[in-house]
């Protein structure tokens, strides 16, 4: 990229803010569009099943709900706000918030579905790696803290770029319904 020799056009400012510490050499990348998530906008109210999107999804047909596969005690569903293409979640049918509260059967099936999801995603999209995780509680970043869900996020070398942060755009190669069908067929 052409630039002025100082970070290809990035402007560096070292401003001391009164009462907020001393100036440093760190660059700041501000993402004000994430504030809605931080404030909890559009999150379900309360901890009961009536407002829980996962409980509602489990009652819908697979295509409408973007459910990839169903098991005895869990299901795999695409994330409506994916970090990457193929980002899905393994969710118990039972409305439970805390990992230690899962039954032994639920725990095993969460693990088995996670393994299966990784195999399927690798087969259909040649993912280079995965981020797998549970955010337990609001303080830990759980968007829907009242209903446990494990994220399975496929990763490829170079998949993190400037588009979501700078361009306010997420690049996905196909519609979620098409991704659901591809994964469901391979499941």
From TrEMBL:
Domain of life: Bacteria
Annotated keywords: Hydrolase, Nucleotide-binding
Keyword Repeat tagged: no
Alphabetical list of Pfam families matching this protein: HIT (PF01230)
The HIT domain, residue ranges: 53-162
Molecular-function GO term, any one: nucleotide binding
Motif residue range(s): Histidine triad motif: 147-151
UniProt xrefs under CDD domains: FHIT
The name this protein goes by in its record: HIT family hydrolase, diadenosine tetraphosphate hydrolase
Organism: Saccharomonospora xinjiangensis XJ-54
């Amino acid at each position: 990229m052409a630039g002025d020799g100082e970070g290809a056009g990035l402007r560096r400012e070292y401003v001391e803010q009164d009462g907020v510490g001393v100036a440093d050499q760190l660059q700041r990348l501000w993402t004000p569009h994430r504030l809605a998530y931080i404030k909890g906008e559009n999150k379900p109210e309360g901890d009961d099943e009536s407002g829980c999107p996962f409980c509602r999804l489990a009652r819908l047909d697979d295509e409408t709900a973007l459910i990839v596969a169903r098991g005895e005690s869990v299901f795999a569903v695409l994330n409506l706000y994916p970090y990457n293409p193929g980002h899905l979640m393994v969710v118990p049918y039972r409305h439970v918030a805390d990992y230690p509260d899962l039954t032994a059967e639920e725990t095993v099936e969460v693990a088995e579905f996670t393994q299966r999801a990784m195999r399927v995603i690798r087969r259909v999209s040649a993912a280079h790696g995965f981020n797998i995780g549970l955010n337990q509680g609001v303080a830990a970043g759980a968007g829907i803290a009242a209903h446990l869900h494990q994220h399975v996020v496929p990763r490829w070398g170079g998949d993190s770029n400037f588009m979501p942060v700078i361009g306010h755009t997420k690049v996905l190669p196909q519609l979620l319904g098409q991704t659901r069908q591809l994964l469901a067929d391979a499941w």
